[in-house]
Records
---
Amino acid sequence: MDRKRRVLVAGGSSGIGLATARAFAEAGDSVTIAGRSPDKLAAALKTLPDGVTAEPVDALSDASVAELFGRLGPLHDLVLTVGAGAAMGRFETLGVSAIAQTLETKLMAQARLAHTALEHLSDDGTITFLGGVAGRRPLPGMTAVGVANLGLQALASALAKELAPLRVNLIAPGLVDTPAYAGMSTEARTAMLQATADALPVGRVGQAEDIAAAIFAVVRNGYITGAEIEVDGGAHL
Ligand SMILES: NC(=O)c1ccc[n+]([C@@H]2O[C@H](COP(=O)([O-])OP(=O)(O)OC[C@H]3O[C@@H](n4cnc5c(N)ncnc54)[C@H](OP(=O)(O)O)[C@@H]3O)[C@@H](O)[C@H]2O)c1
């Protein structure tokens, strides 16, 4: 592997992606973060090591994604942490459109980025998708995101074979305390985090750095491909 690699973290302006960008930048790689909000990108850059760059992109737009990779040029490692904000709620009240919306914002967003990146990725490159525990384990109220996560799992394992020698993996986080839950009231968020921590074998919820460490490990380990790695404190059990 090249010593200094070109890494794109799509979704790197917040949460898991931000921690992942920091891990690669601190290891000496050349890192770009991408996301929709210029304000979030600018705020993230202030917390990251010098040399990290930021690019705007909307992963729901073919044109925006094509422009992003056109600007970036050659790339070694693509990390896909877009897709938070999935529709939550029970199937009977949520409706099928919520599944379609979550497939678009999570599965299709990551698939679009991966597909458009292909001509820019080197032969020893990697793609890392972000799924989640909902999918591996049925969780009431999380059907829509479960469907998206299972789709991403199928995509990642199929691409590991089809795109070899490119390595393709999927990380499946459990509950991670990130800005993804900023829309909840403080009370509801604290209660959710505490109830989840109490139910997990590890006795705590995840931090963004827990997931970033796993992403860093699969990208750097040349013998890992087609893996689905649960980083969920035992939530899948
Ligand atoms: N946190 C958890 O408990 C948890 C659990 C399981 C799985 N995951 C998965 O882990 C990934 C990261 O989650 P997180 O908790 O770190 O979320 P987060 O803090 O909300 O970060 C999401 C990032 O994705 C970007 N993004 C979202 N939609 C985008 C779009 N259409 N185009 C470009 N960028 C977009 C956001 O920036 P902009 O909003 O500015 O675009 C932000 O940088 C997601 O795939 C999520 O489903 C999270």
---
Amino acid sequence: MCTVGGPMADIKMKKLKTKRYKCLDCGNDFKGLGKRVICPSCQSDNVECLD
Ligand SMILES: [Zn+2]
């Protein structure tokens, strides 16, 4: 079993530990990772971690 290739992006998104965030500006609920998380809906960084 030695397969190379495939959709790396998809695997990354699933493997990396994402946290749930909530945007305090628009109330959007989303998953993010890293130190600088911004709301995908309104691009605000005024977000709160739900975990
Ligand atoms: Zn937002």
---
Amino acid sequence: MRPFEYTRAASPGEAGQMAAAPDARFIAGGTNLLDLMKLQIETPDALIDISRLDLAAIERTDDRGLRIGALVTNADLAADPDVRRHWPLLSRALLAGASGQLRNKATTGGNLLQRTRCGYFYEPSARCNKRMPGSGCDAMEGINRMNAILGGSSACIAVHPSDMAVAMRALDAEVETLSADGATRRIPLGDFYRLPGEDPSVETVLAPGELIVAVVLPPPHGGWQTYRKVRDRASYAFALVSVAAAVRLEDGLMRDVRLAFGGIGTMPWRDQRVELVLEGKAPSDKLFDEAARLLLQEARGHGHNDFKIPLTRRTLMAALRETTASFEEETSA
Ligand SMILES: Cc1cc2nc3c(=O)[nH]c(=O)nc-3n(C[C@H](O)[C@H](O)[C@H](O)COP(=O)(O)OP(=O)(O)OC[C@H]3O[C@@H](n4cnc5c(N)ncnc54)[C@H](O)[C@@H]3O)c2cc1C
Ligand code: SF4
């Protein structure tokens, strides 16, 4: 490991000022950053420890939403009674990620900013535009089983690996930040991540030194919700495909349909055209199939990951059947 300076920040403002320096990084739970440092993929000169800042509260907002501090651990967020009751797909997504030990350390802010799991990104001898801009992409012609089928560019097809971010995308979360100059802003999660384009090393719209202080959820959706994750083993594995679904029923028709996807996109994926196809209609397999076709019409496999196209279709159909079967039970009760 290369030498670096370690400083514990006393306040969010101080953390932002310290991290504005080039090659400074915040460290929260450290479950991703430390692995990257051991492999010398991340080589910061300065580590700003934010883990003791007062950013670990989960609070109700005046409009019945939820404000989740950036340092709330994945374990605490999944177990929060309000989250389990009103935003259950978020709790399910968190519990589907990593392991109990990791969830006890991993934080809300760090989870959103975890780096991809593309094998070539973690292999210093491989060509990788995300790790070393302009070097090429060994995944294109290589082992790309875990890579993206949507949102890729000729420079990169890496998947964003977070389960929590997929749930938050479906729930219309906003990221609250504090900049190095003291300015604050709220960024809808839909505008937070960048597609890889020509420079996949830049993954979000955050500026250097900009600290995530919280994630804000709007009032509860109120419908049936699920998070379905397909993976190689039942725990401790990243998604091949995941679907976060929330649907309300009014007079037998689907309303306020929200669908977000993990494991298939270069960022947590949402395509509102797909939701609109379902909106205001009675649930049926024919309609679900039409929605899946629309979602996947621009999907592109790269060989090893071609299987994700039919797998996504089946996972979406299963998630929609699960949520709408719940309303059939409700209607017949
Ligand atoms: C074996 C293993 C299996 C895993 N499986 C899954 C899985 O199935 N699903 C899943 O979703 N995740 C999985 N993870 C990833 C895990 O969830 C992340 O490593 C974790 O959420 C990162 O949070 P952290 O607090 O440890 O971040 P850190 O490692 O501390 O930081 C990650 C990045 O975020 C930045 N950062 C952290 N906090 C802030 C902040 N408040 N503001 C600005 N920048 C910040 C850091 O500078 C760093 O760049 C797995 C990890 C491992 C090691
Ligand atoms: S897909 Fe992206 S992360 Fe993977 S090797 Fe190519 S450039 Fe690197």
---
Amino acid sequence: METRVDVELYGAQTGNCIRAAIALEEAGVRYAVRHVDLARGEQRQASFRALNPAGKVPVLVDRNDADAPLVLSQSNAIVLYAAEQSPGSLLPADDPAQRAVAFERFFFFVTDVIAPGHAAFYLKHKRMPEAAAALESRAAHRLAEAERFLERSPFVAGDRFTIADIAAFTIVNAMSATLGEPVLPNLARWLRDVAARPAVARGYRAFATDPA
Ligand SMILES: N[C@@H](CCC(=O)N[C@@H](CS)C(=O)NCC(=O)O)C(=O)O
């Protein structure tokens, strides 16, 4: 008999969705993938808007409490949800200082790198190449600052893998062509190590439609 999965992740093969899937994988949350075809506009259909009126992926649905299912949008809220499902797995539970640094680095990547990176993508799409290039360059400069996080640590917030590494992974991976290994050797080494984690590899492929 098939076991029921109470958590579903709606999404597509995009950085935001992959980040959410990696967090669920790393926290050991069992979930079912629900593909949303963005090219066909499924995110704008009424059935999907009933989950997220903004018409955006990812969306997580947790039916563990049958009376009050949790419907969560925002990839980074899903990352924090995953961390809470498995205390200690993605945020140090026993060291308040390390935990605070994990939050600091998490928000560094979310607000200082991912946000301008996404805004640049939007401006490119709107055919505003100069404005897009300015934001891309800002995101790249901020990202280069992360090189120092890795000078003496294997992970971006210290000696443990945390939510900060998950926030960093998708954007560093997307920008890796412009990073340049000799210029940012620590980030290049970290990217290889994180990509090799089995849970990260599974999350990365969660929405891939072609076989691995
Ligand atoms: N801040 C949101 C952004 C969500 C978002 O922009 N999702 C994109 C895919 S990465 C989307 O659904 N695009 C489809 C559309 O806008 O029609 C998050 O982190 O989840």
